[in-house]
Amino acid sequence: MQSIYRLLVVDDAKSQGSSLVDVDGNVFLDLFSHFALGCLGYNHPRLLAVARSDDFVRGSINPTSSPFCPATSWFQVLDGLSAYAPKGMTRIFCVDAGTEGIENALKAAFIVHGERRRTAAGLPKNPLELPLEEQDAILRNAGSDAVIVSFSGAFHGRTLGSLSCTHSKTIHKADIPAFQWPIAPFPANRFPLAHHVDENASREADALAALEKIFDEFGPRIAGVLIEPVQSEGGDRHASGAFFRGVQALCNKAGCAFILDEVQTGGGISGTMWTHEQFELEQSPDLVVFGKKLQMGGFFANDAYSIGQFGRMYQTRNGDRARAMLALETLKVIEEEGLLAHVREVGAYFLAGLEALAARYPSLLREPRGRGFMLALDLPTTAARDSFLKKALQRGVFATYTGNRSIRMRPHLILSRDDVDEALRTLDEVAREVSG
Ligand SMILES: Cc1ncc(COP(=O)(O)O)c(C=O)c1O
């Protein structure tokens, strides 16, 4: 599958907006955006201006250990970013990739959980005040039996902790030892959502009941529940706000962290800055992980999950200053150019077009679904999906794959209605050709 994409090398001097130009001069409508990394399109003038600024150059060439000895511009950029934090989040922790954001959010959950457990048992909250034999057990990897609950089909990254919570494809995990942490079923909802309301409600109720059983079984060992607002790599699987509220309620009851992985769903692609804003949660999540469109990885935390003790959460660099400047400018452009409303409006138009296509080719195109610009369709088999994507690419529309048989679209937030019309025309042509 991936080999078809390795043929494409980007000429990013020529690419502009949603148009990706390859080294051979072929022009593609980019519905791929490098697995949702891209946000404002190629060569956005505001990002070019930041990249040419003295601050950016200094941030790029003068490595600084931000947690220990930060440069002045680091405070400015962190203050700026905090204005875009999800509601209730008071802390930001920056690293490089999405998977590192997950690793560190899990660490924050484990640390708070460990401190609470010790306090409840009348032991010192500070691990450095524990008896020396217990500190020795910690050094010998025998310190904690805590677990994180994740969901079937989830993807949280490829480093070891994140991979233990990833269950989307065998190839990601084969031969790599994993923590034996519990896995709850993610509801296998059907689409279009409006056609399957009762059926989906019952799938979600079953999934919540299964999660509750895990809480019964693992009880106080559970430090947190990690979940994607839309399972992206696992096949673009959506669940309702009610489901997420149910998960959060179980976390609250158990007193563990409710951790949202917004690496792929954050940064405006769903039509709100953070997808969980659409779930009407009764309170803010405890930890929200970011990545991709924010140009770096990291997480936001509420007060309860802000880790103060020196040395517990620390990386030499803790965030790339230059990337953080680009992230901040990206978020400002999203706000100033009204891109969230644009994504909601054009995304709804795109989804309606995909639903019409699925109705026209019911045996080929199925389960159209989306939130904003996170859009997907299923084909009957992996081979049919791969061949469909290749034909669309040959006609100049670059969408990508997810799960076993889904087509995933992740356009840049600037995609226009005309672009959508072009995409739908091309998908229609391919569907007509394939249906013979
Ligand atoms: C939901 C989710 N979490 C985490 C990651 C890992 O991010 P990265 O590849 O930047 O490490 C990804 C990457 O696709 C993702 O989609």
From TrEMBL:
The keyword ATP-binding does not apply. Its EC number is 2.6.1.19. It comes from the Bacteria. The keyword Transferase applies. InterPro entries: Aminotrans_3, PyrdxlP-dep_Trfase, PyrdxlP-dep_Trfase_major, PyrdxlP-dep_Trfase_small. Its cofactor is pyridoxal 5'-phosphate. Transmembrane segments: none annotated. GO terms for molecular function: 4-aminobutyrate:2-oxoglutarate transaminase activity; pyridoxal phosphate binding. Keywords: Aminotransferase, Pyridoxal phosphate, Transferase. It is an enzyme of class 2 (transferase). GO terms for biological process: gamma-aminobutyric acid catabolic process. It holds the Pfam family Aminotran_3. PANTHER family: 4-AMINOBUTYRATE AMINOTRANSFERASE, MITOCHONDRIAL, AMINOTRANSFERASE. Belongs to the class-III pyridoxal-phosphate-dependent aminotransferase family. This is 4-aminobutyrate aminotransferase. It comes from Chondromyces crocatus. The gene is gabT.
